[in-house]
Design a protein that fits this description.
By secondary structure, this protein is mainly alpha-helical. The protein is built from five helices and three strands. Strands 1-3-2 form a three-stranded mixed β-sheet. Helix 1 (about 10-20) packs parallel to helix 3. The two termini are about 20 Å apart.
Length: about 120
């Protein structure tokens, strides 16, 4: 997990959280735990925590991609006060997260991680 923090995208997202006045502490805001089938990670808005699924994310590229994707949701939640029950708000955040974290080149991370995001 710590190596993922060296990713330029992850560093930029964490910096953006800080610049926006959003709290971020790795031990408090990121958890690594087993998840149900079909999940690679998630953003828990109630605990304001990114979850990386330990049973799915077992290589650096996948951990970094999922971390970046979920940090976008954390940023959106802090800065835009997203209504996660509103399908338009949810779709906007998902498009932002996917475009930033998964569309990194000709072979996108979505192909590498099987689209499990």
């Amino acid at each position: 997990m710590l190596v993922s923090l060296s990713s330029p995208l992850v560093r930029q997202l964490i910096s953006g959280l800080s610049r926006a006045g959003c709290q971020f502490s790795l031990p408090r805001h990121v958890a690594c735990e087993p998840c149900a089938a079909g999940l690679a990670g998630g953003y828990d808005r109630e605990t304001n925590q990114v979850v990386i699924c330990s049973n799915k994310c077992q290589d650096l590229a996948t951990v970094t991609t999922i971390l970046a994707h979920e940090l976008v949701h954390m940023y959106d939640n802090c800065t835009a006060k997203v209504d996660w029950e509103n399908i338009h708000h949810l779709a906007c955040s998902e498009v932002r997260a996917a475009s930033l974290a998964h569309c990194s080149g000709p072979w996108t991370a979505a192909v590498r991680d099987g689209g499990a995001w």
